[in-house]
Structures are given as C-alpha cells and as structure tokens.
Design brief:
about 425 residues, alpha+beta, Ubiquitin Conjugating Enzyme, four-stranded antiparallel β-sheet, 8 helices, about 35% helix
Length: about 425
C-alpha cells in the first residue's frame, strides 16, 4: 500500500498494489519500505532480480477508474523499470534495483500535476492544457477520497455507503464495466488504514471544505484528451455525500475504540494471554519509572483495566511545554499488537502532532512493546525541533504555522502556549 504523498491530489489516500517477484509457487508476505509505503508481496525467486517484478494496481474501483496516466483502470502500471513502457538507456530494470526503488518509482507518479505524466504532455502550456490540468487534479482529489479512502474504510468497518436505501454509483449507468480486476482486502492494512484515517481526518475534511464550493454535486468530471471509455476516470462530484460518509467512518472507528476496554475485561475473565501480558508490561513500566525517579510521567490503569491506560505528562521546565499537564488515554485492543493502540489527549493542544479532536500521531520503534509506545508518545509532543515529516503533521492549521515563516513560527508558539494554559483548568 502506498499512502498518497502530501500536497498532491492523492494526499493521504490509500493505494494498494500487488507485487510479484519472479515465478514459481507464491508465498504471501507482508513488509514495509519507505515512510509512505507498505506492500503485500508475492514472492518466487527463480528469475529475480534478473527480471523486474510484476506490479498491478488494485485500487481501481473494480477496473473502472484510471488514477493516473501511468496507472490504468485495468491495474497496469506503466514504468520503464518494470518493462511496461518504452525506455531510454539507463532507465531499464537492473539487478541492483529492488522493492524500494520499485515502490518509490510508483509513488513518484503521484505528483501534484499528474497530467504531465502522459507522454507528449510534459511541456504542455496552452490555455486548454492549463485548464485540463486543473480539472484533472480536481477529479483525482475527489476520487482519491471516495475510492482510495472511503470505500476501503467502509468495507473494513462493515459500513454501507447507501443513503436512504439508494446506492451511490459514481459512473454512468450505461457504462460497460471491465472484468477481472478486484479490490484488495489485505488484512494487514486494515488497522494501518484506521489509525491513519484518524490522523488525516482533518486533512480530508479540509479538502472537502475547499473543493465543495468549486464543484457542486452532480457536476460531471471532465474527460482528458488521453482518456478513453475503457481507461478513464468518469463520474461526477458529490462532496456533501463524501462528507457524510467521512463522518460516519470516524464515528464508527471511535465507537470501535471505546469498546476495546470492555472486550479487554472479557479477555481478562477468560484468562487470555494478552490480558496477562499487558498488565505485566504496565507493572514493569510503572516500576521502571519509579526506579528512575521519573516524576514527569505518571501511568495508571483506568478502573484497573489493562486495556485502557491513563498517561499524564508534566511539561519539562524551560521548554515550550513548561507548566503543562498533558493527559492521555491509551486504548489497547485485545488483538494487540496486530491492532495498535489509539491515543487521545483529554485536553487537545495546538500542536502539529495533535489533531483538533485530540488524536495523537506518534511512531514507536517497536510496535509490540508498550514502553516504546510510552516513550514515543512523550517524544511526539516534547520534541523541540522535529524534522519536517508531512505524514506526522495531523493538525493542518498548526503545521502551516510551524513550517512557515519565522513570524508564523512565533504565532504557532503563542497558540501552543494558550492551549497549554487550558490544561491547568
């Protein structure tokens, strides 16, 4: 799965690909590569790395949607290194290349102006081309949200997209649909998508807010010169409907999260290993904090439930968080670590890593170790000069200020300070 790069029409959408290396009896594996990439692999090594892998796009709305001039509705991915497009010397596959270079090459297709990916349009400058570029970006933004965010989330959460009992097709009723292309339902990606959805929810809604006035419901997508009936992005805009479905998804994820503590108590009563393991980890971390005389962090179990931890962090003196009292709820699933913790601030602060709803974005080094989670939670809000990493900026307003001009940065810290004062109440 490739998460759409920020500041592109694919931003934070979830695009799945199958990657087959070599020939022979396949084994299905799960792995990850770059910051924005995870992948489901089918491996057989008889002719790899002498020959390139076979890659197929799975996020195509069942063969109805071409997301890019180089990513067809049929799932074909046109890249020189894959041998699926004519290449110049030096652009072909070599045995020195591998999974990472393949995925990064695919990701590079998801640019902020994909219209120019079409051969012959690289230097397009006419007024017609400029308008086409704008129209192409706008319909990709809409379908990235609808097909690459909303649809897989609804599938994994068991949500019907119907409104008032009516289906919501976004293609022409007389359209002949391609066959043989189905969407992936890779189990490994389900929890990742849920966590990322909570992180990027405000970004999704910000896009809807910005695009809805420009593209009213039922306005048809403009057909591009390089599109044809069997390989195009057809349909119409309906941002109010996308908004409704986004809200329903968020509510379902939050409801699911709030059920974890009760599920955990049932696991404890059944004396399941996960309940024993989490309690042991809690006790070990608590003892370590006492032994280290770390008075900046307190940790408790809510109602003695090992599946709901309460973390309080006291801001370091002489830091931007000085004087703050930051309280977190850490929800743990009975299926941990396959389902990762979801962390919320009781009193959200104005911070690049904290959404307006209080969802904390953090990245532990070890996903199965709760001490790593605790350390990562504290580091996420305490780091004074974090490197620029768009995937972790979950508060769009705060991110613009923090990574803006020096004056913007001052405004960011003023807003942060005001939000910290509210933690005293």
């Amino acid at each position: 799965m490739i998460v759409g790069p920020p500041e592109t029409p694919y931003q934070f959408a979830f695009f799945e690909f199958s990657v087959k290396f070599g020939i022979g009896k396949p084994d299905v594996l799960y792995g990850s590569s770059s910051n924005y990439v995870a992948v489901n692999l089918i491996l057989g090594f008889q002719d790899y790395p002498a020959k390139p892998p076979t890659v197929q796009a799975l996020t195509t709305n069942k063969g109805r949607c071409r997301f890019n001039p180089n990513i067809y509705a049929s799932g074909r991915v046109c890249l020189s290194i894959l041998g699926t497009w004519q290449s110049h010397p030096g652009e072909q596959w070599s045995s020195a290349q591998g999974l990472e270079s393949t995925l990064l090459s695919i990701q590079s297709l998801m640019s902020n102006n994909p219209y120019k990916n079409e051969p012959g349009y690289e230097t397009a400058r006419s007024e017609t081309d400029k308008q086409n570029m704008k129209d192409y970006v706008e319909k990709i933004q809409h379908e990235s949200l609808r097909i690459a965010v909303i649809q897989p989330m609804e599938t994994s959460l068991g949500i019907s997209s119907a409104l008032g009992g009516a289906s919501y097709p976004n293609y022409d009723e007389d359209e002949v649909l391609p066959r043989g292309n189905t969407e992936s339902t890779c189990e490994s990606f389900i929890d990742l998508r849920k966590r990322r959805f909570l992180w990027y929810y405000e970004s999704y809604m910000q896009t809807i807010d910005a695009e809805e006035p420009k593209n009213p419901p039922k306005r048809r997508f403009k057909k591009m010169p390089f599109e044809h009936s069997a390989n195009a992005m057809n349909g119409h805009f309906d941002y109010p409907e996308l908004r409704r479905r986004m809200i329903a998804i968020k509510e379902k994820i939050l409801s699911e999260t709030e059920e974890w503590p009760a599920e955990g108590l049932a696991a404890r009563d059944q004396e399941l290993g996960i309940a024993v393991n989490l309690r042991h980890q809690y006790e070990q971390i608590s003892q370590d904090l006492k032994d280290q005389k770390n008075f900046g962090i307190t940790l408790e179990l809510a109602n003695d439930n090992a599946f709901l931890w309460e973390l309080t962090y006291f801001g370091r003196p002489m830091s931007h968080l000085d004087g703050g009292v930051f309280k977190f709820k850490i929800y743990l699933s009975p299926r941990f670590p396959d389902e990762q913790p979801r962390v919320f601030m009781d009193q959200p602060i104005f911070h690049v890593r904290v959404s307006k709803a209080g969802v904390l974005c953090y990245l532990p080094q070890r996903v199965d170790d709760m001490r790593n989670h605790i350390d990562a939670i504290v580091a996420a809000i305490d780091e004074e000069s974090p490197p620029y990493d768009p995937r972790t900026n979950v508060n769009p307003e705060a991110s613009i200020l923090f990574w803006g001009t020096p004056e913007d940065r001052k405004k960011y810290y003023r807003n942060l300070r005001r939000s910290i004062e509210k933690t005293w109440e």
